[in-house]
Amino acid sequence: MIDYLQLLESNGVECVPSGKDRVFICCPFHIESVPSCGVHLVTGGWNCLGCHEHGAFYKLLSKVANVDEQTATLMLRDSSNMESVIKEISGNLNMEKEKTVKRFIKVKSFNDKFSLPSESKKDFVKYLRSRGVDLIMAQTYNIRCGVEGDWFDRVIIPVVDFEGRMLGYTGRSINPKVQLRFKTLRAYEGAMVDALLGVSWFKVNVFRDQRVPYVILVEGVFDTFKLQSLDYYTIGRLGTNLLTGNQISYLLGLTNKIIIFYDGDKSGIVAAEKTKKQLEKYFQVYNISVEGKEPSDFTGKELKNLLSEVI
Ligand SMILES: [Zn+2]
Question: Is 243 exposed, middle or buried (0-12, 13-18, 19+ CB in 10 A)?
Answer without folding.
Answer: buried
